[in-house]
Each structure stands twice: as structure tokens, then as C-alpha cells.
Amino acid sequence: MKYPPSLLSSFFLTARSFLIVCLGLLCQTAGAQTIKSPNSKLTLTFTLQADGVPTYQLTYKGRPVIKPSKLGLELKNAPALTSGFAVTDTKQAAFDASWQPVWGEVKTIRNHYNELAVTLTQAATQRTVRVRFRVFDDGLGFRYEFPRQPKLDYFVIKEERTQFALAGDHKAFWLPGDYDTQEYSTVTSNLSEVRGRMKAAVTPNASQTTFSATGVQTPLMLKSQDGLYINIHEAALVDYSCMSLELDDKNFVLESHLTPDARGDKGHLQTPVHSPWRTVIVSDRAGDILESKLVLNLNEPTKYKDTSWIKPVKYVGVWWEMITGKSTWSYTNQENIKLDSLDYSKVKPNGTHAANTAHVKEYIDFAAQHGFDAVLVEGWNTGWEDWFGKSKDYVFDFVTPYPDFDVQELHRYAAGKNVKLIMHHETSGSVRNYERHLDRAYKFMADNGYNAVKSGYVGDIIPRGEHHYGQWLNNHYLYAITKAADYKIMVNAHEAVRPTGLARTYPNLIGNEAARGTEYEAFGGSNADHTTILPFTRLIGGPMDYTPGIFQTKVSAYNPDNHSFVHSTLARQLALYVTMYSPLQMAADLPETYNKFLDAFQFIKDVAVDWDDTKVLEAEPGDYITIARKAKGKSSWFIGSTCDENGRTSTIKLDFLDPGKKYVATIYADTKDAHYEKNPQAYAIRKVNVTRKSKLAQLCAPGGGYAISVVEAAGRR
Ligand code: NOJ
Ligand code: CA
Fold first, then answer.
1. Which of 143, 246, 499, 682 has the CB geometry, 3.0–4.6 Å to 541, for a possible disulfide?
2. Is the model's pLDDT at 713 over the cut of 80?
3. Residue range 310-514, CATH number
């Protein structure tokens, strides 16, 4: 049964309010149900197969995106919720409303969709599941809902059986399926090649838990042979296990694979409850995938009454010097020591401990001088001697500084210069230990003037057997975020589950890592095309604390024993502040280096971290991305462009600028002979007058790119 688009569109309220429509006759009808996106380009069809198996399919401009695909779940010690269903109710609705994020890529987000909710009842067991579909102009979201009911109360998920049947052997940008890390290099291959390339993909990271030869993580970016861009992910992952995808590589059918707990179970639920949304973003223009707000729209509005304390942050930090091996997190060189009984004032310092009061003051001075909001300090607290070791169940207490780190004095010094310190909580995976200390740790922060924490979950999880992306841990991450909100603390969690748009609901989640960040440039390097892929994959769920801005691209300059290099030109490091969206941006290199390149550093000082508007000017996953963003509350724009190892000429129009206005564009670009490996620091800066009629053709070196600040010309409105 199909609703004519004209009938549906008459339900859209231009006044932007909500309307539920149940067309009486159809509500009780089994069989196919169809809804379209507001612009009619997408069509979602729900069908109940003869054996009562629920299926859905999706088309875009008449082309198949998801072919008929099964829905359902298998339960532990209970009959499966996969077949034998009858449709007992259907409801349609339309929604159109706009909202303003606390921070974001645009000022206002339109949430506009048509909805179909199908209630399915399994006659044999008298259990009910509702599947709710929302079709937006940019894609589809759907989830399982389990209403409160006599025959389904507590239940344990054995596996979710949601399929995404693809129309062909698409090109895929994928990471090995893993329950504990997303810090892999992305593999670009056809789906039919995933199996053959899995072993090599996993090996460099010595993954703990790759679950099969064809399991891949989400967000999964796909491109069909005929030019459809498809992104599969999930939204609002709450009290549920993270979804990866198993690939049937003969038929190109992906199927959900949930992260197990220590006993192998995939989720413990109690009705009324629902799954996260499963999302499919689709377009024939790659830039639309980057501009999509579908994942955010499928999350709930913020739960916080007061969000005035949540602010985007540009920061520097005592960090890269430890990552490169120039200095250490730990205060001593002792290993295998009994940390719980160690008196640090009696042990010999190693002389390389970076988080000492005098050195941190230098960073505070640098931050104050150049207008940064904050300084991150890692290695300030006791326990780093054995953070990978046996004693990690009690290694960190999050409140005891090393003897050379004076918390009160640094608080006083930083406050006097209008700079905040960012707290660091490395849990080393000992989550029980962290939860035991959390209240005290946050109180310690509040007492000492900290309003943001970078947390970390490196290593195997304690309780033993739990995985980083299982339901138990996912609940922990959210607990840490909401608890932090009680203290008006912002959270940037590393090694936590990859984001699914939850920052809409909990906007103090200002950052996550959950992918291969800049740190890997000091651990052997990342591919030169890495930052042309991440916005299409990891960033679909939310911002990343990627930590760009490395100007000294040879790591050996800091540590002669480390021969890694940054797979990027210096100009491209600037571009990342625009192309890798985050309300939390680090200038990750050392002050001593920035002082040598103050002309290029100016861009990092100027670039905004919060935006009123965003335009994707050019994009092709794995090849290049060029984005322009308008600074929040200002007339200036910033443009960033990143390309792969081949280099290219980027051609853009500045037609997004305001009519009648004149601007000065400062262009930070690779020189002709620049190259990410051979000549990364070759850049040139030029200024040109521009208007909205201007066009630009700009060379990007191999592994390079460019950054532009576009500022309204003074007094010439
Ligand atoms: C891994 C994080 O990604 C990195 O940023 C941090 O410095 C170390 N863990 C130590 O916590
Ligand atoms: Ca990490």
C-alpha cells in the first residue's frame, strides 16, 4: 500500500509542529507499507514476507540503496523475534522542526522527516515489537521498540539480525570489526576484497578481538559503481551494545553484529525499551554525506536545562612531547613497583617528567600570549610508572599529583592569565577503579578550577572480559558524561565507543577520539589519504579530538630514536582545523616549534571553533575534501582543503560570501615543490582581495592542502 506524495505532503505543517496521522483503514493492514522522504527522492518500503518475516528496502531516485533486507533479533533462552509476525498496527507521521545546537557546524538544524511505525505481533508467543522508520531527505533511520507487555519483560539479546542488502560490490572504506579499537588505518577496497585484505588490515594493530574475516565497523562509507554514496551507522547508542557489520561477501549483504559482554551475551534489556537507530545516509553527491545532520536529528534534544557553561575550546598541551618520546608521563623510571605503597617523595625523579610546575607555566604563558582557552596537562598524577602493568586495578586515583606538580599554584597562575587547565584521567581500562573515584575526582577538578577533562581507556578493560564497545562500557561512558555535567565539566573521551550523535543530548561531550588520531604519526604514521576519509566515516557520528597542527613533521627532531614522520604537509595541518570538525581543537605541536613558524601559526590563532554555517565545496572520499565554514556570530569564513598522496588542483567558487561585501583572503598553501614526505614544510602565504564573484584554483601538493581565512575588509562595507 502506498501513500501518494501529495497526500503526505499535505500533512507537513509549515508552522513546524508535529502531527501524527493514522489512516484508520491502513493501520490494520498487513503487507507492504511505503513512505517517501519529504522531497520524495527516497522511498522506504516495509514488507512482511509470507512466513511473517519483517523486511524493508530503500531506494534513492528509483535506484536501489538497500534491497529487501530482513529485520529481527535472536534472544537467549527464548524464541527468536525474527519471523511468525503479523502487522497489528501501522502509524504514519510527519515532522518538521528546527533546533539550534549548543555548538556545531551550522547555527540551525532542520529536522524534517516522514515516519512509519509498524507494530508486529508474534501470534505464537504473544510478543510485540514495533519498528519505527524515519525517512529524511538525506537518508533513513529505523529502530526496534519493545513496548511494556506481559510476555516480554527482561530479555537477553543473542544477536541482532538487521540486514543491509546492498545492490552490488561497492567500493568500501572500512576498518576491521573489533570490540576494542577503532584505531586502524582505513582500508579502501571493494566489498568482495574485504575477506582477502582482513589479515593485513588487522596485523599492524595487533587487534585483540577481530570477530571474523568479513566483519567491519561503522560508520561504513560505501560508493556504488554508478556513483551512489551510502553511509551506514547508528544513532543514539544508549544502554545497548555497539553494532558492527558482518558481510556476506557473495551476496553483499551486511548484517548487524553486536559487541558481546564477558559472557558472550549481546545485551540485557527490560521493556519498555528500544534499540539505537540504524542509519543509512545516501546521496549522489559526496558532499551531502558530509553535510548530513541525520545522526544528530535522530538523537534527543538536550537534557540539560542550563548549557551556558559548555563552550568550544581551542587548546595547547603537555602532550606531543610525550607521544614523540621526548619526555615522559611518569616521574620516575622505576618499573614493577608496588604503586599503592610507593612514597614518591623518596624516589629519584627521571628528569624527563614534562608535567612539572615550571614547564606547565611555560605552556600557560604561550597559551595566554596567543589567545588559547586552555592547556591540557597529561602525566600530572601518580601512577604512570605502571599504567600498562599488573597493578592497574588501583594504579590511578585521579587526585594525587606528582611531587613536582603544584595544583594550587598552577590554578592560581593560569587563572591570573585567563587560561584554563584541562584535566587528564587515564583509566588504563580499569573502569571499576575509575567509577569508584569518579565523584572525588570531579570534585577535585571543581575545587581546582578545571572545567574539562580528557579521559582515556587504554588497554584491556577491568572488569575482565568486558569490551570497550559493549553495553556495560557504553553505559559507563554516558554515566561519566552525565556525572560530569553535575559538576559543569566537559568531557573528551579517548578510546571510548565511537560517537553516535549523543552530543546533541549531552553537549558537554565535546570530544572523542575513537579513531586513528595524530598520535599515530609518531607511531609509524598514517596514510596520506587518512584525513580525506575520516570525515566520511568516524566524523559522521560526532566530532573527533584529532589534535592537528604538527609543524615539525619529523618526529626525530624531538626524539632521535623515533623515525616516524607526519604524512602531511604543513599547509594541510592548517586545513584540518576546518575539514575535521570539532568544537575542541588542539594546537598539538610544541611552543618552541610554533615560535619558528609564527606566520603559519597565525591561522591556528585565527580559526574559529564554532560555526554558523558550513558548505562542502568539493569532496570525494579517499581523494579530497574542501570545506568552507562561517565563524559563529562573525562575518569571516575559513576554508580548508585536504587531498591524498597524489596532489591536485582544487577549484572553488566563493559564492557563499555575502553579496556586496569585500573581503581579504589570506591563503596558506603548499608551494609547487611541497610534498608530504620529501618537502612538507614548503608553504607560502599570500593575501588577495575577494568577493562572492571570486574563483580560486589552488594547487595541493601530494599529501597536502591549503587553508584560507576570509575576513571582511575593514571599513569597506
Ligand atoms: C592514548 C590517547 O589517545 C593519548 O592522547 C593519550 O596521551 C594516551 N593514551 C595516554 O593517556
Ligand atoms: Ca588513542
1. 499
2. yes
3. 3.20.20.70
Whole-angstrom distance, CA of residue 447 vs CA of residue 444: 5
Q: Is 672 helix (H, G, I), strand (E, B) or coil?
A: coil
Residue at 541: amino acid letter: G
Tell me which residue has cell 567558487: 653
* Choice among 393-402, 543-552, 694-703 with the minimum mean pLDDT: 393-402
Q: Say whether 159 is catalytic.
A: no
Contacting residues for 306 by C-beta, under 8 A, at least 6 apart:
none
Integer Cα distance of 144 and 163 in angstroms: 13
In our burial notation (b when 16+ CB lie closer than 10 A, e otherwise), range 688-697 reads eebeeebebe
Cα of 266 vs centre of ligand 1, distance in Å, is 28
**Stretch(es) of the chain classified as CATH 3.20.20.70:** 310-514
What is the b/e burial string over 617-650, where b = at least 16 CB atoms within 10 angstroms of the residue's CB? bbbbbbbbbbbbbbbbeeebbbbbbbbbbebbeb
CA 450 to chain centre: 24
The answer to whether the Cα torsion of 214, 218, 224, 225 is positive or negative is negative
Environment of ion ligand 2 (residues, CB < 5 A): 494
456 CA distance to ligand 1 middle (Å): 6
pLDDT tens digits along 436-488: 999 999 999 999 999 999 999 999 999 999 999 999 999 999 999 999 999 99
Q: Which ligand ends up closest to the CA of 492?
A: 1
Ligand nearest to the CA of 422: 1
The CATH number of the domain covering residues in 31-297: 2.70.98.10
Residues carrying CATH 2.70.98.10, the chain? 31-297
**Amino acid letter, 354:** A
For 442-492, the three-class secondary structure string (H helix, E strand, C coil) is HHHHHHCCCCEEEEECCCCCECCCCCCCCHHHHHHHHHHHHHHHHCCCEEE
The conformation of residue 360, written as its DSSP 8-state character, comes to H
Q: Judge whether 105 and 84 are in contact, CB under 8 Å.
A: no
Question: Judging by DSSP bridges, how do beta strands 313-318 and 584-586 pair with one another?
Answer: parallel
For 531-545, give one letter per residue: b (16+ CB within 10 A) or e: bbbbbbbbbbbbbbb
Ligand 1 site residues (CB inside 6 A) read 319, 378, 426, 456, 458, 494, 513, 519
Name the catalytic one among 183, 519, 521, 712.
519
CA distance 161 to 179: 18
Lookup: cell for 712: 571582511
30 pLDDT higher than 60: no
Which atom of ligand 1 is found nearest the CA of 329?
10
